[in-house]
Amino acid sequence: MKFSLRNKAISFIIAMSLAFSLVAIITCKNIITRMVNDAYLTHSTELANTVTVTLDPEEVMTLREAVMDIYMSVDEDKRLNTENWENPGYDDYTALFDSVREMPEFIHLRDQMKLIQNQNNVDCIYLNYFDVPSMAAIYLADADDDDSCPPGSFDQYDMDSEETQNTIKDPTVGYPAYINNSEMYGWLLTVGVPVYSSDNEVICYLCVDVDMNQIREDQINIILLFVGILAVLSVVVCIIGYILMNRFIVKPIKMLSDTAANYCNSDNTILRHDFSDLKITNHDEIGVLSDSMKKMESDINDYYSKLITTRQELITSKEEANRMGEIANRDALTGIRNKRAYDDMLEQLNTDIKQGNARFGIAMVDLNYLKTINDVHGHEKGDIAIRKLCRIICFIFGHSPVFRIGGDEFAIVLKNGDYDNIDDLVKKFNREISENIGNNDLPAWEKVSAAIGYTYFKPGEDKSADEVFRRADSLMYDRKREMKSGGVR
Fold this sequence. Notes:
Mean pLDDT: 82
Strand content: 5-15%
Shape: flat
Structural class: alpha+beta
Number of helices: 14
CATH topology of the largest domain: Beta-Lactamase
């Protein structure tokens, strides 16, 4: 045995444990990532809201006015945003705001934000004013020690972005949390909340930056801890699973397998009790299997012979039923489907109507002067006339089922291409009938004359297929009267 059941069981347990562990790791990774992100987002938003409460709105307003006075005094083409920080002119531009750094309001606000920044796990806290006309986010004060964004420095914003438009429409929304990865600032999670004046107007935004690398480091540490715990649990589960599977599955099945192998290789004409002697106490499918194999010793031949007999009887019965069903639905004279088959078709059409997917039409054809042919030439010639009309109908309406529902009446359930091309087919039918009537080489009973009427199923109007049938039948009789009044034979 190249790969025993025991080895398969071990492989199965290990594979299932690995699969479960992989799914658990992926699932928990996503959950942990979301939880850590949410935790940092909540922490940053709450911190930003807390800081805004501690700031003096009057000081913030004074600082903003001082920065904006200088900003507005600089020509627009001489303002250099933070993307130009390596440009020598950038230092000259920010130097214009040196007086702001000496303002007591600036020093007090910066120190307040620096104290809170140092006590919390954030990268930076700063005040930012969003100036719509110049499409700029202007820094008022930065708690960072190196003053990386000095007063008057600004970032240029995309005014067409959805976030910017939302802030312009409603300044109270602030800067909803977003992640930005730039060469200048690095990989950051940023959130900004409004700072309100005493008149409840938005002065500027208090922004908090969190280093995404720190967030990812926390996520990785938690995930690694979870993976370690999961690995230990997986090993324990594999050991316990192996012991249980070997005791309750592998060992009993091996006993049954060995007994069956020896049983087949021995003289099985002698009454044997190999399976009866097995001590298998499982009260599960293996126990049922053991009992079944014990019973097999006495019943298998009887079951096999009964199975063969029953199978042959079923085959014979099915063939007979199919044959009788085919005969019952066929018209004996023409070989096409009869009235019984037509009634079955109407039931199917009614089902389609109830389900809302019905698309069909019905055409009625009636043989003219059948009684005259029977009376003058005999019923045998009348049967010939019926069969000829049937051939004409089946030839022209080759894509639809045709039924003989009376002595001289035929019904056609229009489907497929016949449904779409019914007008052309009816013209062809009438032309065929006219040519047939005018053919003097034919005996009188083969010059068949027939009237046809047709209509479509109308959703919302017709409640059953029988209504369509009656309308088609009425149109057929209208055609019959038209033919007689016009002198058509």
